[in-house]
Write a structure and sequence with these properties.
Number of strands: 12
CATH topology: UDP-N-acetylmuramoyl-L-alanine:D-glutamate ligase
Bound molecules: adenosine-5'-diphosphate, pyridoxal-5'-phosphate, zinc ion
Strand content: 15-25%
Order of helices and strands: EHEEHEHEEEHEHHEEEHHHE
Number of helices: 9
Number of domains: 1
Helix content: 25-40%
Length: 297
């Protein structure tokens, strides 16, 4: 069935808990997508726990999977989705995969979360950053950096909404027509900034969505957010603001349920080991109540 959108999702797998593919596959399936996960790593659990054990897929192993698909004529995808990528050789191979997928479907949408770090700290080798800037950004259709990643990609500090909007223009000029800054922390408030530039000759359509900052530490929210943005932006192809409203409303619904479930169980939601209550949030994912609105800028 070529009319069902099909996503190749190259992300982490955790045996227990929800980051990477574990945070992306189920929500996209609920939204009606075929999702084919390639697990770039298989870890026992996410990095919020004190111990992590597991295996890392290397570039050649990734390529073997792609060759298997190709040999069976199974390389038709509407979307490629990537998140955390730990090594240079794996990143280079992901770019090869993208080329192959676009040879089969020139309209393939590449949704890239350029995972590099957060709150001023890298969680990849800093040597990867220039490769993201020079090779990955130019081929991405939608880019979903956080504030830190935006600063690294544009080489400038982002402290105000105005600077963020300007940085989106910088990224548009490099390639992606859609840029979503998933969170901008300004005066202890959280903003999502969206910028949609389908046409190079027209100014970008930009918007902001304000969110309350929940006093808790979540892992996997970035991965879930990017998956939801992929899903809703495909359903609302000419309305990125609407897609973002739905994604934010859905995500905040998941976070509210997560907090209240932990509180009911008598567990402090400040724990870094906290897990998203994804399975319990099916309704929030498949039919979010529009509680957050985009303001056009
Ligand atoms: P990443 O994990 O990639 O750094 P973000 O921190 O931007 O991603 O989080 C992604 C989304 O998760 C944000 O857009 C926001 O909606 C939500 N989020 C994450 N943490 C919180 C929080 N403490 N309070 C409210 N929303 C949050
Ligand atoms: N732990 C592992 C193993 C991951 O792969 C990731 C992201 O892919 C994270 C934690 C953090 O996810 P996020 O940035 O969405 O909080
Ligand atoms: Zn992230």
């Amino acid at each position: 069935d070529v009319r069902t959108p099909r996503v190749l999702s190259i992300q982490s797998h955790t045996v227990q808990g929800y980051v990477g593919n574990k945070a992306a596959v189920f929500p996209l399936q609920l939204l009606g997508f075929e999702v084919d996960p390639i697990n770039s790593v298989q870890f026992s659990n996410h990095t919020g726990y004190s111990i992590v054990r597991g295996q890392v897929l290397d570039g050649d192993q990734l390529w073997a999977l792609i060759e298997g698909l190709e040999a069976n004529d199974l390389l038709y995808y509407t979307h490629l989705l990537t998140g955390y990528i730990g090594s240079l050789s794996f990143l280079e191979m992901v770019l090869q995969v993208l080329q192959k997928l676009r040879a089969v479907n020139p309209n393939l949408i590449y949704v890239c979360d350029p995972v590099m770090g957060d709150e001023g700290k890298f969680y990849i080798k800093p040597e990867l950053a220039p490769v993201f800037r020079s090779k990955v950004v130019p081929v991405a259709s939608m880019l979903t950096p956080n504030q830190f990643e935006l600063e690294i990609l544009t080489g400038s500090s982002i402290r105000t909404e105005k600077e963020a909007l300007q940085a989106c223009e910088t990224l548009h000029a490099l390639g992606p027509s859609q840029v979503i800054i998933t969170s901008l922390d300004i005066d202890n408030k959280l903003l999502l900034i969206g910028s949609d530039k389908p046409n190079k000759d027209e100014p970008a359509k930009q918007f902001r969505i304000s969110m309350p900052k929940i006093p808790a530490y979540f892992t996997g929210t970035g991965d879930l957010m990017t998956a939801l943005l992929l899903g809703w932006s495909y359903k609302y192809q000419n309305d990125l603001a609407k897609a973002a409203e739905l994604a934010v409303s859905s995500l905040q619904g998941v976070l509210r349920r997560t907090i209240s479930d932990y509180e009911e169980a008598g567990v402090s939601p400040n724990l870094k080991q906290l897990e998203l209550r994804l399975v319990q949030s099916q309704t929030e994912i498949s039919s979010p109540k529009l509680a957050y609105r985009a303001e056009k800028l």
